[in-house]
TrEMBL record:
The keyword ATP-binding applies. It comes from the Bacteria. This is Thiol reductant ABC exporter subunit CydC. Gene3D superfamilies: ABC transporter type 1, transmembrane domain (1.20.1560.10), P-loop containing nucleotide triphosphate hydrolases (3.40.50.300). SMART domains: AAA (SM00382). It is a multi-pass membrane protein. It is found in: Cell membrane. The chain crosses the membrane at residues 140-161, 167-189, 250-269, 275-298. Residues 19-269 form the ABC transmembrane type-1 domain. Residues 342-562 form the ABC transporter domain. It comes from Gluconacetobacter entanii. Keywords: ATP-binding, Membrane, Nucleotide-binding, Transmembrane, Transmembrane helix.
Length: 563
């Protein structure tokens, strides 16, 4: 199915509102046509009656056409106003629907997509592309359909007075509304594609630059990046100029065709008048009506151009959303049950596109309540264990069971309810400490938050801040030190109190004293049935766990148990 057909599919629940918007748009445009058409007749008929002497003047009925003029004038304003209300509301709803639909499909793929793509790209897809898809109704479909209906009606109305005038008008309308915008769309397609690509790339560059501003400065790469962005901007400007030139040319041609058609209609009507088949008052009426009929074509060049952009945007979003998730959702999801023991048997996990196994012939059993340190050299497969447990990536070999059920029957959301992680690159959210704790546990009371901060050894810092729990921590927690950020993440885990906790280098960035206090407090406060898996390079932290498992070459080796 084509991308546009799929957008139309997403519009289904809004079809009645959209149809009402179209009806109002047609009503407003036809009212405009009717107003000029009738005004032309009224003025000319009044003039003819005025010249025709007293009898003609008395016989002329001004009242009925004047009512018609007022009716069309009022209807034009009212219908346009209502049309704006209905169509803009429908557009916002459509954008919301497209976003919700694509988010549902993109979210499960996020870890795998982010391993291949820049987060800026992903953000751009999600914000700008879905926005453009939402504009499809308002700025493409609505003007094209409305123009088509209005053109047919205006040709029919003109045809009721003079067939030849209607033919001239129809030719002009087809040239102006169909041929010219189509030609413009084809001529500017390449430039529009290029603008879209450069926009994408520039957005991703900018996001990357803002995220890694410090690193770019340290590496002395800031200027090169700025130059790259400036180059993209210059390219976009050049292409925009090209598009503007084409659009300007098309608009001028449209004006010429509009005027020529109106004159053509007048000339043909004049011939009919000469042959006595048309009254004099009809001449300005048909000429003005002919001119008004072209009004509905004004938005068409922009609509055709946007159509190309919508096609590209929708193609990208659908391609991304259609990528099969690297962990297929289970047909009948099951929930693990206590005791939440883990058993991995002969596991083989290879990342998508990787040529080597991250885990191979890996066996590991962890009973609920055990405290296990996972140690090993960099790249051995420690974080892969976390990815596997959270169902971010699927394993291709072996069997894995958690809480009595096969891991393949459990989806990521269910696993996240049973396991909390404090990872090396844990993300904190923009806003206050209270907000970050609230995201981890929406029902947490203020008292529980302070308790969690105490366990995480962060309460002294928060208490010293004038705003306490409402202290703002900045984007990604930039206003906290590495150690403070880690402790806030630990406070989140304390609030969630899940049966399993994975600590990925929990004390990195902390001094020896804080590290000792933090680990002691954590072990003390987490319920004894909580399993702790602690990934660490720190022998002192590993020594606090009851058991040490060493990962090497993608396999787990028992390296010692506390007596
Ligand atoms: N998303 C990914 N795509 C492809 N390969 C990956 C991906 N993530 C990790 N790998 C590879 O899998 C192997 C195991 O990586 P993993 O991140 O589990 O190591 P680690 O033991 O956690 O290392 P570190 O201690 O440095 O964090 C490595 O060879 C790594 O290059």
């Amino acid at each position: 199915m084509s991308a546009l057909a799929r957008i139309i599919g997403l519009m289904r629940p809004l079809r009645w509102q959209m149809a009402l918007g179209l009806a109002l748009s047609v009503a407003a445009s036809l009212a405009n046509f009717g107003l000029l058409f009738l005004s032309g007749w009224l003025l000319a008929a009044a003039a003819v009656a005025g010249l025709g002497g007293i009898a003609a003047r008395n016989a002329f009925n001004l009242f009925l056409p004047a009512v018609g003029v007022r009716f069309f004038a009022t209807m034009r304003i009212l219908a346009r106003y209502l049309e704006r209300l209905v169509t803009h509301d429908a557009t916002l709803r459509l954008i919301g629907r497209v976003r919700a639909w694509s988010f549902e499909r993109l979210a499960p793929q996020a870890p795998a997509i982010l391993a291949r793509q820049r987060s800026g790209d992903m953000l751009f897809r999600f914000v700008a592309d879905t926005d453009r898809m939402g504009q499809f109704y308002l700025e493409v479909l609505l003007p094209i359909c409305s123009a088509a209906i209005c053109c047919v009606v205006s040709v029919a109305v003109v045809g009721a007075f003079s067939r030849s005038a209607a033919l001239v008008l129809a030719v002009g309308l087809v040239a102006c509304g169909g041929v010219l915008p189509g030609v413009a769309g084809a001529l500017s397609a390449r430039a529009m594609r290029r603008i879209s690509q450069q926009h994408d790339a520039m957005h991703a560059d900018l996001t990357e630059m803002l995220q890694g501003m410090g690193e770019f400065m340290f590496l002395g790469a800031g200027q090169a990046m700025q130059a790259r962005i400036a180059e993209r901007e210059a390219d976009i400007r050049t292409e925009r100029r090209r598009v503007a030139l084409i659009e300007g040319g098309v608009r001028s041609a449209m004006t010429v065709i509009t005027m020529t058609s109106a004159l053509g209609v007048l000339a043909v009507a004049d011939m009919a008048y000469g042959m006595g088949t048309l009254s004099a008052a009809c001449l300005p009426m048909l000429a003005l009506g002919g001119l008004a009929a072209f009004d509905v074509l004004i938005p068409l060049p922009a609509a055709w151009q946007l159509l190309g952009q919508v096609h590209v945007a929708a193609g990208r979003v659908f391609a991304q959303c259609d990528t099969p998730p690297c962990v297929p959702a289970p047909a009948r999801p099951r929930s693990p049950e206590a005791p939440f023991d883990l058993s991995l048997s002969d596991i083989g996990l290879r990342y998508p596109g990787a040529d080597h196994w991250a885990l191979r012939h890996a066996d590991l059993s962890v009973g609920q309540g055990e405290h296990v340190a996972v140690v090993g050299p960099s790249g051995a497969g420690k974080s892969t264990l976390v990815n596997l447990l959270f169902r971010f990536y699927d394993y291709q070999e072996g069997t894995a069971r958690f809480g009595g059920v096969d891991l393949k029957d459990v989806d990521a959301d269910i696993m996240a309810r049973h396991i909390s992680v404090v990872a090396q690159d844990f993300h904190l959210f923009q806003g206050s400490i209270r907000r970050n704790l609230g995201i981890a546990c929406p029902s947490a009371t203020e008292e529980a938050m302070w308790h969690a901060l105490r366990v995480a050894q962060l309460h002294a810092f928060v208490q010293a801040e004038p705003d306490g729990l409402d202290t703002l921590i900045g984007e990604g927690g930039v206003r906290l030190s590495g150690g403070q950020a880690r402790r806030l993440a630990i406070a989140q885990v304390v609030l969630r109190a899940p049966p399993w906790v994975i600590l990925d280098e929990p004390t990195e960035g902390l001094d020896a004293g804080t590290e000792r206090d933090l680990m002691a407090a954590l072990m003390q406060v987490l319920p004894s049935r909580t399993t702790i898996v602690c990934i660490t390079h720190n022998p002192a932290v590993a020594a606090r766990m009851g058991r040490v498992v060493r990962v090497e070459g993608g396999r787990f080796h028992e390296a010692g148990r506390a007596p």
